[in-house]
Every structure is written in C-alpha cells, then in structure tokens.
Design brief:
- The chain contains eight helices and 14 strands.
- It is an alpha/beta fold.
- The chain has a single domain, classed as Ribokinase (UDP-N-acetylmuramoyl-L-alanine:D-glutamate ligase, 3-Layer(aba) Sandwich).
- A hairpin with a 5-residue loop joins strand 7 and strand 8.
Length: 285
C-alpha cells in the first residue's frame, strides 16, 4: 500500500441522465438525477483507494451545505482531507452534467466560485510521508512552484501531472513531473491528429501517456519508445464520466507496483473500460 496525495479540486456533480442528448433549444425530461462528489483529483483518489492505497486530498473545502456530500463520500473511501484549506465564503465548484443513456457520453457545464489551492498551502504538507504526488494541470503558476519545490526538497518522490485542458502556459510544466498524463481533448486542441503525434512532439526524456477514446491509449518512455493498448469495452456502455480519472489512477497504481510502462498502460485501459460499463466509481474493483 502506498500513501498518495493529490492536489486538485472536488466538485458537486449534478448528473441528469437523459434518453438522448437534446438538440439546441429543446426540452427533454431527465430519466434520473443524482448529486455526487466529482472532480478529477478526488475521482482519481477514489479509484486509488479501491486499489488499496492510503489517499489524501489537498484542495479547497468551503464551509457550506454542498460540501457535506463531498466530505461524506471522501470519508466513505477513507480519503484524508486534513491537507485541505477550509474557507467560509464562496461555493464549492459545481458541474451540471447530462449523460446520454443512448451512448453513455457526457456533456458538462461547470461553475466555479472559490479560490485555487496555493503554493503556500502546499508547503504546509509534510511530503516526506508520501510515496506519490499527483497534480491536476490547473492553476499553472502555483502548480509550477509546487513542482519545483517538490523536485528540490524531495527529488526521489515520484509525481504525475494530469493535462486534460489546453490551459495557457501549461507546457511549462511538462518537464517537471515523473510522468505526464495527457487527454485527447488537449491533443486535439493543439491540432494533433493522433496520440502518437502528440507524444513524439514532446521534448526528449519526458515520460507520458495519452488516451484516445475508442482507439485506446499510447505511452512514450524516456527513450522515445512508443507503446499502445487497445480499449477494453464493456458489453454495454453505461457511463463514461470519470473514465479518464480511472485510467490515470490505474496507470499510477501500475507504476507504483513496478509494472513495465506497456503493462501499466494495458491495465489502465482495462479498468477504464470496466468503469464505462457501470454508473459511478463505487465498487469498481
């Protein structure tokens, strides 16, 4: 069992399941609605917890009613939130999500009214107790300070960086973590037609992965060797929300367990496929 801390956000997800995704300027009835905890960093921790690791979340918690759902679910998965900064004003980030029953795809509208976790917050964490640190690729200037601090004071502590969205300046972070976890959305935003094209465009010695929907995922090692894994589709696609976070968690777990990069990649695709066949992340393992 490893001790892992993830720096990023938790959200309140309001999820409406619809028969088919509505066209613009139309009204449809939701088949169901649920309110759950979301957010990339905490999703990743929920999966890592089920894989047997002791997990810690470092982020912002707002002392308001909606945070109770988040705190209850984190507690259910034994995720420690003592590294969080608690503030009294604002609202927890909220994602309004429509899931198509027909395809399992999800569309998200996100609203945020709270500050980011800062470098000053990060420096308060006793990093010597951890085996891995995971960062969401957001809050670029502060995350860069965190990564430099980690490399300077804990050079042997491995870390990962999730790069999901094309945020301004995020490329300045790519050489700092042990591994970079790219999404297809990021690659397409920079006009890459394939995952391989993105990965071979990176500076040498960067270890990275890139997921690519139903084509699977690719990874590149420090020798610029490429690896590929196919998808492992469930019999029925139920819910793709959190599949990328599941992939990241399983990939981190594989590396912690000293699997070869190709083996970790395949295992991550397998677990992400399993997640697509069920609603939510509970009882995934």
């Amino acid at each position: 069992m490893a001790k892992i801390v993830a720096v990023g956000i938790a959200t309140l997800d309001i999820i409406n399941t619809v028969e088919t995704y509505p066209s613009e300027d139309t009204e449809v009835r939701a088949l169901s609605q649920r309110k759950v905890r979301g957010g990339n960093a905490t999703n990743t921790l929920v999966v890592l917890s089920q894989l047997g690791h002791k997990c810690y979340w470092a982020g912002i918690l707002i002392d308001e009613a909606d945070s109770s759902i988040i705190k209850q679910e984190l507690a259910h998965f034994n995720i420690d939130s003592s590294a969080c900064r608690i503030i009294s004003s604002g609202k927890m980030p909220t994602s309004y999500i429509s899931v198509s029953q027909e395809t399992g795809s999800r569309s998200i509208v996100h609203h945020r009214d709270c500050p980011e976790f800062s470098f000053a917050d990060f420096k308060k964490i006793d990093l010597s107790q951890f085996d891995w640190v995971h960062f969401e690729g957001r809050n670029i200037e502060q995350t860069e300070l965190m990564l430099h601090y980690l490399n300077q004071h804990h050079p042997s502590l491995p870390c990962s960086l999730e790069v999901e969205k094309p945020r301004i300046g995020i490329e300045t972070l790519f050489s700092l973590p042990s591994i970079v976890l790219f999404s297809k959305d990021y690659a397409v935003a920079y006009h890459h037609k394939t995952a391989e094209e993105l990965l071979i465009s990176l500076p040498k010695e960067i270890v990275a992965s890139c997921t690519w929907g139903n084509q699977g995922a690719w990874a590149i090692n420090e020798k610029q060797q490429l690896f590929h894994s196919k998808t492992y589709d469930p019999p029925n696609v139920v819910d793709t929300l959190g599949a990328g976070d599941t992939f990241n968690a399983a990939f981190i777990d594989g590396l912690l367990n000293k699997l070869e990069l190709s083996q970790a990649l395949t295992r991550a695709c397998q677990l992400a496929g399993r997640k697509c066949g069920q609603q939510g992340l509970t009882n995934l393992i």
